[in-house]
Amino acid sequence: MDPSSALDIAPVERLLISCRGSEDVLKYCESELLPFFDQNIASWKRQGRQFPFPLHVKFMLRFVPYSPDLVIDLSKNGHHRWDQHAFLHLFFMKPSSVDEYRLGSRHEVSEWFASVSQVNGAQWLILFDSTKAREKKNRGTLLERIKSDFAKHTSRVVEIHEGSSQCMNGLQLLMQSYLLSSLDAFVSYEESYLSVLKEDYKSSDFNFIAYCEYQMEMSRLYSTLGVLEHVLAKYDELDALLSLIVDHFSKESTKPSWLCGESHIGDGCPLLTALAQCNAPPQRRSVSLIEIRSLIVAHQIIVSLRIFDERVRHLSGGSPPNAIQMKCDFAAIILRYSNHCITSICEECSAMGLKLDHGEVQCWTVAFCVEAMQFVSLLTQAAHVEHASYFACSLSTRKCAAITELGKYVESGESKALLAWFEKGVALCARSAAESNAVVEIRLILSDQQQFTHYMQKYHESSIALLKHFGWKRQSKLLGWQLANFLLSSDRVEGALPYLLKFVSGLIREGVSLLLVERTLVLVVQHLEASPNLYLKELVDFYVILSIHSAEKNDRLAYCKRLFALLERNNSTKIRHSVRSSTPYRALYISAKSIPSRITATPGDVLRIAITVTNNLPLSLENYLVRCVFRLASSSCSRQKPTGGRSPLFECSYNHADGVNRFGCIWKGEYGVLPRDSVSETDVPICSGDEPQKSIVFEEREKRGELRGGNNVLTLEAKASDVGVYMLENVDIEVAGVLYVTFAWMDIPEIERDNSRRPICFVYRKAATVSLRAVKGGYALSGVAQRLDFELSSGSEPIGDASTSLRVTSSNKASNIEFWDESTSKWLKWCHPQVGSLAVNEHRSMTVYICKALRNLTTYDEADSDVATTSDQICVEWLGKEWTFVVEFRSLISVRATTSLLEDKALLEMQMSRVRDDGWVILPQEAVLLESSIDEPQIPAKLLNTKLTPIVPKSSYRIVWVLPPRRQHSEETVEHEIRFAYRVRANGHFDPDIPEGVYDREYVYEEDIALTVQRACYELCAQLLSSQPGAVLCRVDSACDLIVSLRSLTNKVETVVIGVDADSRFWAINEKHKLLYVKESGLGQTSFSVVPKMVGFLPYPSITVYCCHHLRTSSDKSLGHIEQSMFGAHLASFIRTNGKQVHVLGAFNPSADQKSTSSDKSRRLKEAKSRLTKLFD
């Protein structure tokens, strides 16, 4: 059935045009005018009405003989039927001469004119066919005579003649103008009349039936004109007015006179197909709400279908691109009208307190919903109308509820009266409508019990499918429950079980409390136990639920025993459950807290993991098998994305430039994946035999016997075989060889909360490796034998050659590192320790003794006297591979070399410092200083301290040589060689962890040093005296006099600058430089005021001699200060008091009877001068 067949229910009517006069002219004009008006539209601008655009109307005309009753007299009050009046009146004449007009047509047209013109507002035209008059050359005189007879209305006299399109076009436009004028006057009058009539709607005497009839007549007029949107608007106004009336009278004690107060709905069942053919409400004094609303909605549906048909025909092509969307839109309109109608009837009957016949209401409801869905099916399926899902689901729910109530009448045999009442409504329909599916189905439902059961199930199943499609899950479950109860009451248990299972399973999945469904669940189990093989999976599920959550303990034990017995009886059947984190009432529970997130192994390794299995059943499980499957991570076998779980993942980013946070969903989750609840026997094994290399299966090697209630920690083992990255895929628990419970990785709680905790097993081929253990203390000592420990690993392959050995050497060929070779018991540049054979993944430690000789340690800066650090690379070769390790060395000693002058002699002092307690005692054997000369024989320097004593940790040691005489005062640089031989021994309780035979050897420290010795120009001597009167020793924060005496070794008279400097922590010196004039005797003396800042033995301030550019005499007293420009070159000098210390005491308060400071200072200066004079003499 297509929409065009539905449009035949309400045929389109035509406007009346009255005609009188010549039949020949009538036929000619009818053939010319009707096609024009049928194919063209006119623009209707309503007078006095504001419209955003004019109405485009089409005049569907029908010519009828003139009658005075067809003239519309709008001056008479009341309603006027437009289909009984003519909107335009025409008179046709075709005389050939004036005499023929006067004798044959004048009297008749005058009579017609008198009848038409007496009605104010009537539109008329006189059509004169001048074809014959033209032939007889009488056209002009005849036309002039006719117009003279109608002198006041010459514009209404129109000349036409056959073959003239111009005359016909003028007539068409003129008729169109008069039709629009007549139509506007009629519509304005009727609308004003209806508006006045409508104002009295609150009165109980208001005749809504008559008002509805008039409004429907106006709607038919608009439908004839082709303005279907206005037709639909008129019916919408009727619906709104009816709602206002009911709302008003629902609050009043009286009821409107037109509303039927009886329980009877009507003479017959109000069917939409029958009411769509009615042009007016039932002609009775009162009607029911169901009748009047069904009438309105029937016409709303038909008009909507006509609008759809018109829009489709006007679009280009037979099937426009947007035709599907247009069908869905108009189907939604029909659903909205239908749902509004039935909802309004239910609400208004309740509000008005109407008690209708329950059976008739249910019968009408089923028929109405079926017919409404049938009209929707003319356009598209209801499931396709997404934006009208509420209306479709509401109608389906009401239909199922009504047919359920109707079943009570069918069972009790009271359906015959309903069937007779229904047939009365069918009798009003046309033959095609009476044979529609809706009518046939309702007739069968009321006449046959078996057919009723069939359609009861059919309606419920279709409604359940529709509700599920639109997401009305709870309502669909309710319909399923109602259908199941009906089938159970009809002794159709097999048919009811699927619906019972869906209803109970849905509630369980939603997590409904078992207390609410326990009785129903027990009832379902009783029915399922009659066919255990057919409903094995469901029985197992329900047994598990009742075993865990039954209220009584005895019931829990009983259902658990039934579960075990059921599994034993069906050991040939395989059932698989995919358990998710949202699955309620789980018998078994998995926890992966004990599984490490990263597992590494090599081929052949035995892997072990611990997994916790929780048994929620009241009895222990004996026949079980737990398997944990790690599958190879590859795109071909991965069924889930490894980076996301079932929950969505979000990412937040902050744009510093815009200052905006942006959130995005990077993983939508896997909730759409449906679990497989059962598989065949061949699909149950997780790791089949044809793919043993694609997964690692962990199983329990030594079974513990049974899974007790509560937590059970199981140790699973597997053997790694192939190289690859394996990720946890699922955990399987097999019970009695029948039930397979599968936990996917994303359904394990710990992993679901944090996908990064998904365990990954890395199986890789591990090569043989050599590693260096950390050296004790973080560094090795150079200058003494040290121990290095290497860790060797065979990797994933065994090493069977017993003759394998390491080759250990230094990466730097010029390195001064030696290795202890055990085979020769010698120190060599390399060593070859034997390794032997190694098993798979076997580790072995190898010890190598190493000695780095001391070289080039001398520094001339006191700040750099700390132990220097160097790094060397140790190269280890094994099995054709090479490893390089960086070892940090710190010298056993630090050396500082200084030269000094003693009168005419030059000394070289080598100071060896040991700042750390390394546990070794150095035993000096020999100290030699040689001049590196090629042409001359080497002369060893004289060693002043010939007795060499042991050097202990945290001490300093000095060796002093006197340079050879011939080189003492040379200005050129001379290379010297220092050779210091020594041995070592362990200090006290120090354990060197090195055999004595290894470290007990002679060590040699060699150094090449370049010396430049200058001749001393001056000999200096300093003395510190207290400035306090009568004091001998210096005291802290008390001024002291530093007396500097100078003796020239060159007998040169000159002026020099004496500089004094000291550490600010020890001494405070106000004036650090002074000029000193060297006399002819070569002597000179000056003093500085210094203040000690610390108690104890303080070193003397350092003294330096510079040349002076200012030639000052002994009598020159004009120079008050020394400028920087006066400083010259530094002069070599020998300081006798170098390294001398002075004892500084604490502060002292002087007594009152002491002498003055100035006199005491003069006395002490004289005594110091006397002593220095004796010293130089």
From TrEMBL:
Tell me the InterPro entries matching this sequence: TRAPPC10/Trs130, TRAPPC10/Trs130_N
Task: Report one GO cellular component.
Answer: cytosol
Q: Which Pfam families match?
A: TRAPPC10_1st (PF23036)
Segments carrying the region annotation (Disordered) are 1152-1177
Q: Locations of Basic and acidic residues compositional bias? A: 1158-1177
What are the GO BP annotations of this UniProt entry? early endosome to Golgi transport; intra-Golgi vesicle-mediated transport
Q: Domain of life of the organism in this record? A: Eukaryota
- Annotated ranges, domain TRAPPC10/Trs130 N-terminal: 14-302
| PANTHER family for the chain | EPILEPSY HOLOPROSENCEPHALY CANDIDATE 1/TMEM1, TRAFFICKING PROTEIN PARTICLE COMPLEX SUBUNIT 10
Q: What is this protein called?
A: Trafficking protein particle complex subunit 10
At the highest ranks, the source species' classification is: Eukaryota, Metazoa, Ecdysozoa, Nematoda, Chromadorea
